[in-house]
Each structure stands twice: as C-alpha cells, then as structure tokens.
Amino acid sequence: MLVNGKEISLEGPCSVSDLLASLDYDSNRVAVLLNGAVLPKAAFAETQVQAEDALEVVQFVGGG
C-alpha cells in the first residue's frame, strides 16, 4: 500500500487506526485521505485498509 507516496507492506488486515498507531501518528492530530476521499475520524477504527489502497496523512502542527 502507499502511505504519503511511499510503498509500505501490510502484515495483515488492519484498521486505519491501527496503521496510524504503527506509523507513530496521533490519530487526534491528523486528517486522512483514503484513495482520494476524506475519511472521517469516526471511521478510522472500522475502516480496513488493503494492499492496493493509497493513504495520505496530513499532520496538524502547532506553532507560534
């Protein structure tokens, strides 16, 4: 599967939440596009990713 344009391998079926955690993203501080469509945060835990999927993760960063 592709995550932010980089190929990664999945060891088995996993949810978007599980994938984000394994990649050290805080799911409360990201927006996710799955195959080009915005995925609501409420769907992270129930949405399964597949090897052919493309995921874009945008992380919010505070500054000042």
Automatic annotation (TrEMBL):
It comes from the Bacteria. SUPFAM superfamilies: MoaD/ThiS. Pfam families: ThiS. This is Sulfur carrier protein ThiS. The lineage of its organism: Bacteria, Bacillati, Bacillota, Clostridia, Eubacteriales.
